[in-house]
Amino acid sequence: MKRNKSAEDYLECILLLSRENEFVHRVDVARKVGVSQPAVQKAVKILQHGGLVECDGLHIYLTAAGERYASRVYERHCIIRDFLKMHGVDAIDADDDACEMEHVVSEATFEMMKNFVNKK
Question: To 10 degrees, the CA torsion angle through 91, 69, 66, 71?
Fold first, then answer.
């Protein structure tokens, strides 16, 4: 799947919600992402077509491929956030900026940040 900010945001959201709750519902995703339920429905259909999520009518589940992808996105978010905080950015700005940067930073830059964060 080609990298897509919107898809990655939905996957990351579903991953985090699945860690907090037994079941992930569209309404919860809509609230967390800040979009309408029809927008979530459309995104879920795209993610299903890509083999990243499955639905049983009420709940959304990450497939194994979806969980791997979402975990990589979330790892990028956490590393970038921690890197920024280590360089004096306050926690709220670091989290907000990481949310944007996780989708666009090159693999080489990400690896540099990861190595820096893991050495401290």
Answer: -40
Q: What is the pLDDT of residues 4-24, one digit of tens each?
A: 899 999 999 999 999 999 999
Amino acid at the residue 24: V
What CATH number corresponds to the domain at position 90? 1.10.60.10
Domain identity same for 90 and 110: yes
* Polymer length in residues for the chain: 120
Give pTM, 2 decimals. 0.90
The whole domain housing 46 covers: 5-69
Structure tokens at 113: 């940040």
Residues 6+ apart with CB under 8 A from 45: none
Contact 22, 15 (CB under 8 A): no
Q: Are 86 and 50 in contact (CB under 8 A)?
A: no
Q: Quick one: CA dihedral 89, 81, 16, 46, positive or negative?
A: positive
